From TrEMBL:
It comes from Serratia marcescens. InterPro entries: Glu_permease_IIB (IPR036878), PTrfase_EIIB_Cys (IPR018113), PTS_EIIC (IPR003352), PTS_EIIC_1 (IPR013013), PTS_IIB_1 (IPR001996), PTS_Sugar-Specific_Components (IPR050558). It is a multi-pass membrane protein. Residues 108-225 form the PTS EIIC type-1 domain. It is found in: Cell membrane. GO terms for cellular component: plasma membrane. This is EIIBCA-Bgl. Pfam families: PTS_EIIB (PF00367), PTS_EIIC (PF02378).
Length: 225
């Protein structure tokens, strides 16, 4: 059932202390980001209880209301309320550097980068599971081209995981996606993989007189040295 974002936005603004307590509002991929004047006027339990609100995060002078993929609709409904400063981007918030803040930033970067990859990883896993079941059930002979193709489809998301992580990270950190993919693509290039295989067998491999350590990057997100 479609959500009534006019009602949801009205309830959100009311729980934030009304339009008079809001200096500006903007949004990211899943959250409405409000800059408020007085955090004490925010009714956090009421915010979390609103149907359509998935969560609430307080960060500095910002109150971030998690809406989900339809955040743009909620944002337009908030703008329709005509609150002051709604059309302007939220001013940058100066944050004090703390261990908790650093940890939260690292966690946000990891979650923001890996979350978009979950559907592809789950899809690949399901295809590989299907291939395994068909193999165990004897529906196809071992080494059958059908099983090979199914395994290739299932392996796609894992084999090119470095490239997918690079693209997702480029979106998260607002950098050039083509450049990120090009850099990650080097790591899964067949010639580079062959060189790493030779290095693993003890053959000397170097780049500009610098020894290259044998590392396999396919199927990898973080490599431990």
């Amino acid at each position: 059932m479609p959500k009534n974002y006019a009602e949801i936005s009205h309830a959100i603004v009311a729980a934030l202390g009304g339009t008079g307590n809001i200096e500006a509002v903007t949004h990211c991929m899943t959250r409405l980001r409000f800059v408020v004047k007085d955090k004490a006027r925010i009714d956090t339990p009421a915010l979390k209880a609103i149907d359509g609100v998935l969560g609430v995060v307080h960060s500095g002078e910002q109150c971030q209301v998690i809406i989900g993929n339809e955040v743009a609709k909620a944002y337009q409904a908030v703008l329709a309320l005509g609150m002051p400063g709604a059309a302007a981007p939220a001013p940058p918030v100066k944050r004090q550097l703390t261990l908790k803040g650093i940890g939260a930033g690292i966690l946000d970067a990891l979650v923001g980068t890996m979350s978009p990859l979950i559907p592809a990883i789950i899809g690949g896993s399901m295809v590989k599971l299907l291939a395994m079941i068909l193999d165990m059930a004897g529906v196809f002979e071992k080494g059958s081209s059908t099983l090979v193709i199914l395994n290739v489809i299932g392996d796609g998301a894992f084999f090119f995981l470095p490239v997918m992580v690079a693209a997702s990270a480029a979106l998260k950190f607002k950098t050039n996606m083509s450049l990120a993919i090009a850099i990650a693509g080097v790591l899964v290039h067949p010639n580079f993989i062959d060189l790493m295989a030779k290095a693993a067998q003890g053959q000397a491999v170097e780049f500009a007189f610098i020894p290259v350590t044998a590392v396999k990057y396919t199927y990898t997100v973080i490599r431990r040295w």
